[in-house]
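Researcher: Dear colleague, please comment on this protein.
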Amino acid sequence: MNIKKLLHDKKLSVVLSIIFGLAVISLLYACNGDDCKNFVGPPKSTLNDIFKVNGKCVKYEEKSVKCDDNKKKLKLN
């Protein structure tokens, strides 16, 4: 089939428009920079439990530390 005929087909034009629109939207909503950081860790309720890491038993404990103003601050949800 001829390419010009394909481009003038109504159904194909709609499909191509939808695909192009989704591509543009995905570019606009793509995260960049600091917006994309995702911190994953154990739930706070299990921090006092004992975990096995590389064959060794580990217990995590909460500890308050002094903040360093020279370091970047990240907002955690």
About this structure: Residues 2 and 8 are 10 Å apart (CA to CA). The chain has one domain: 3-59.
